[in-house]
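Contributing new records

If you add data, match the layout below exactly. Sequence lines come first and carry their own label; structure lines follow with theirs. Keep one chain per record. Anything else will be rejected by the validation script.
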Amino acid sequence: MLFFIYNKVVNYSVGIIYNKSKANAKKLALRIALWLKQNKCKVFVSGSMSAKAKKFDFVLSVGGDGTMLKIIRTFSPLSVPVKGINLGSLGFLTDVDTDEVLILLKNILSSGFKIEKRILLLVEFEYKGKKLKTVAVNDCVVRSLSGGKLITVDVDIDKNFTAEYKCDGMIIATPTGSTAYSLAASGPIVYPNLPVFILTPISPHTLTQRPMILPSKSSISFVAKNKYSNGKIMVSIDGQENYTLPNGAKIKFSTYKKSLKLIKNCSRSYFETLKTKLHWSV
């Protein structure tokens, strides 16, 4: 699902959201805002990670991948393109360094920008008596409320029972999230534009239960059971939103109706990012 969409307008409306806990994030955000205003753009700047979604032409995230994940979940429902500026340590989503920012913005103002579309994961479950729907950019992790405790997860794919997993937890990841927790749990690296999900068990007690790559059109569900912690189950969205569910909770997964719209960094390929971030050339 790779789409290049040429976007060029006279005066862009730009949101800049920075992580105020990151050193120099506010200073950089204000410097970018000043430059954009001098170039006749409308600019909104916020240091609040709970900034409300508004319909901008695009949004800049100033921080690390954690900042970017929150901003994607906030602005993707409005189909607002986003771009991350890296002040973190690793930065797969934030692939523009601080010394590249003005070069990127000059190119956008002179030639427009190209968009790369990626799938997002819709997660549905019942929480405190209400049906809850939330969106994951990287992954959803289902595990015991007590870390390191064994749980049992029954997995259905397209309404067919697939397997019972006895494991420390289960990860369902998007291709974007294939380089996150799923990778640490021995999942595969998946090219980020592919329409697939990755199902990765965490420390399965049956060695033949390996990670699986599934079509994103699949309807997937977990029923999670836990004999520890009073049967409580933890559901974690991108490691940022956490919910405690009762024993036997059912969690459903599908493709979210809107795509992540990522402004393409045409000066760097995905494989260059992998080599740099994973130190393949060292």
